[in-house]
Please model this.
Amino acid sequence: MKLKLVLALVLGAVTVSAMAGQAEDQQVKFRQSAYSFAAWNTTKIKSQVIDHPETYNKEQVVAAANAIAAVANSGLGALFGPGTDQATGWKKTRLKAEFFEKPEDVKKLAIAFNKEANELAKVAASGDKDAIKAQFGKLGETCKNCHDQFRSKE
Amino acid sequence: MSVSIKIWDLPLRLFHWLMATAVLAAVVSGKLGGNLIDWHGRIGLLLLGLLVFRVVWGFIGSTHARFTSFFPTPTRITAYLKGQWQGIGHNPLGALSALALLATLAALVVTGLFANDDIAFQGPLFTLISKDLSNKLSGWHALAFDALIVLVPLHLAAIVYYARIKKHNLVIPMLTGRKVVPKAQAVELSGGGLRRFAAALTLAVVAVWGVNYGASYFAASPAIPAATTAEPSF
Model:
């Protein structure tokens, strides 16, 4: 009887320790997926509007811009829980620990990303390629600003 | 007795000032990002051409442009530190600085060719390697930049030091090509010449053309799966 109890406790402890960090890992998986999906869409816009304007397809660019805006508006902040700078999603996160020490900076960066992504969706709908290009550059700056500050180099 | 002689040939001077301008432009465009990242990439290709030219010119250029004439061997460095070095081109410490700058810029350019920023930029050779390796090289690109922002101020500080303390103006010779030297050390430039210049320039152009367009012969252009927009859209 006593042995069974000990066994159960040991098994329980092992399971709990294996599960520790799982919630964080899951958050990282979701956010890595979200940004990868956004990157597929930025790449399409870059290709059709800037690199190969002869391939411009308004519907595709609108779809891509809407997808980026949807990612930006999806409440990604929830995927940056405490401890997620140490977690591993599809691969080890590159989030710097400073992310959690500078919430004001994070807020500013996040708001900028949202604003420019929503603006890009609006401009894409207008079909004005020059305006899309300019707004795409602004969106890219918000990505870069956050990467420069809170994403470690590989 | 001092005489004014020609020390830096015209291609070398042009290289130097184009390099300085292009590096400044690359730093600014790289830091600002946004749509300027495409200019950053173009400037990188210009830098590639300049570096290839400089390396070739280091073998077939005129006297003081050649690596063998200024390569900072231990003997030369020791002599210089003891104040016994005699020469009129790059002194051994200056040569170390020049080679370190060239090596750092070469590292920046080569890693940049394979780099990506996960936003909207991929170097012209990105498709030849895996994304993971490209990420790694992008990290090295940043490391090499850290080295550059140490070396460039050192380079400038040395110029100020030589002007103020040693009373040697290094900037004017790099502009005019001429320098006043003790008569005993005055040696006329040899080598270089128009045909060799044309050869070095051709190699530089071919290198730039090769990386910019050549990659597409070895790897398919970036496979960006396009979206389907037919109704119902999936």
The helical segments of chain B are 10-32, 36-60, 67-70, 74-81, 92-114, 131-164, 171-176, 194-218. The longest helix of chain B spans residues 131-164.
